[in-house]
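Q: My labmate handed me this sequence with no annotations at all. I'd like to see what the chain might look like in three dimensions before we decide whether it's worth expressing. Could you predict it?
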Amino acid sequence: MMSRRIPLQKLLERHMSAKLLSLTFSAFLCAGAALAQSTPSPALLALSKHDHTLAIVDPVTLKIVARMPSGPDPHEVIASSDGKLAYISNYGGGAFNTITVVDLMAQMTVRMIDLGALRGPHGLDYAGGKLFFTAETNKVFGSYDPVSQKIDWVMGTGQDRTHMVIVSSDLNRIATSNVSSATISIFEKSKAGGPGGPPPGPGGPPPGAGNGPGGPPPGMPPGGPARGGMPVVNWVQTVIPVGRGSEGFDVSPDGKEIWSANAQDGTVSVIDVAKKKVVATLNANVGGANRLKFTTDGKLVLISSLRQGDLTILDASTREVTKRVPIGHGAAGIQMQPDGARAFVACSPDNYVTVIDLKTLTVAGHLDVGGEPDGLAWAVRP
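A: Here is what I predict for the chain of 382 residues:
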């Protein structure tokens, strides 16, 4: 059998082709590494409900740095205090029971938190090293410890559609909006012992999550034991009636007032936190209101509406509407830039995020973060 000889010229051509392919591939990898952008600080986090993604946005260039899977039906997002992790609620209209965790430094989705029997996670906040979340179907909110990777506390509200949650930095006050009950709940710590369970902060007593909302573990007296000489904490809830469809709400930067936007009434309820009662009802005409946010200086209040195409802006001191800014066909999430210069508003029906210049109260640009943008947050590294 005769062996087939390959001419030297052909061998040289094959060698050069392989070498060129190798060099081209190496160059591609190097270019990819060069094009990869690290996560800035601060970074704007933006969810796309249509694409099921979380986008990291550089607020200086307004460019997308990275996109990661968000899990199904993402609605709200919050970053850890160190700006390294993001947590995304997978809502499902009250059917789902997971929270997605994203590593913002590695720019990758790392795990799903299984909430077990707690369904419809929606509102999120991060305080005292803990992730706080609402579970709408169960009429509760709770806290998740990232260190132990366990739910360590649950508290019932007894209100329908407990939707959003805000926790004070000292962990002494927690507020929730309860959409279908048309109420705001304010929970405050009391030094007196009694039912209510452990405090949610670091080093608190054992979890009672599996034994009913806010309850102590089996066989333990009401209020649970003291640990390390710490007094038992009792949580006292005050339920404050507001307008119908109370969903988006915010606490003023000085902590003295809570403003609730009432979607069905089109009104805004102003709550005096110390008095724990509504002190004013504003006829702001914000039917379909979705989110309400104070500016960082506390001077203005911005309200988005999924029914109206304007962003409503109120003066916090006069409590009057100062301007309505046309931004599209409806909007959801609102976030203020940490330095107070701009606001970002997720215009879900229009598939973009609107940038608002807070000095001129005009539209300064748009971002494409994916279809149906909704929840927004800031990740800031100390």
